[in-house]
Specification:
The chain is of the alpha/beta class and 125 residues long. It has helices spanning 9-18, 21-24, 33-42, 71-82, 101-113; strands spanning 2-5, 27-30, 49-52, 93-96, 117-120. The chain has a 5-stranded parallel β-sheet, covered by helices on one side. Strand 3 (49-52), helix 4 (71-82) and strand 4 (93-96) form a beta-alpha-beta unit. The radius of gyration is 13 Å and the shape is globular.
Length: 125
């Protein structure tokens, strides 16, 4: 299963087109941090790939402290890691695809710090 967190339908459609046909039926598109956390909980042992945007709700250059940003997913994963409850989520690959470079870099570093396989590639590169 693939989790794709982004609030922009055009980016979601483009990402969908770029995935292999066999992967397309595995994608769960989330538009909010809340939806993404629920998906992480529900599919924790089946997710193989998690792609996270940062700025959600149609906003740009959002501060990482906001609970309605992609950083909230990072904080959620950190809480799980602290309690050794990542389970299957530690086997997934993570990609930060945000164009908000300061936020994207923070997300990347913090996921790296909890030993997840992560890369930072702004969407479209």
């Amino acid at each position: 299963m693939i989790l794709f967190l982004d609030d922009d339908p055009a980016r979601a459609a483009l990402a969908y087109q770029r995935w292999k046909p066999s992967d397309r039926e595995q994608v769960i598109w989330c538009m909010t941090a809340e939806e993404a956390i629920i998906t992480l909980q529900d599919y924790r042992d089946r997710l193989t790939y998690v792609s996270l945007g940062h700025d959600l709700g149609g906003l740009k250059n959002v501060h990482t402290a906001r609970e309605d940003s992609g950083m909230e997913i990072v904080r959620y994963l950190e809480r799980l890691a602290k309690k050794d409850l990542l389970g299957g989520l530690k086997n997934a690959r993570y990609r930060i695809h945000s164009w908000n470079a300061p936020a994207g870099n923070k997300m990347y570093k913090r996921l790296k710090d909890i030993k997840l396989k992560v890369e930072y590639v702004p969407f479209g590169l």
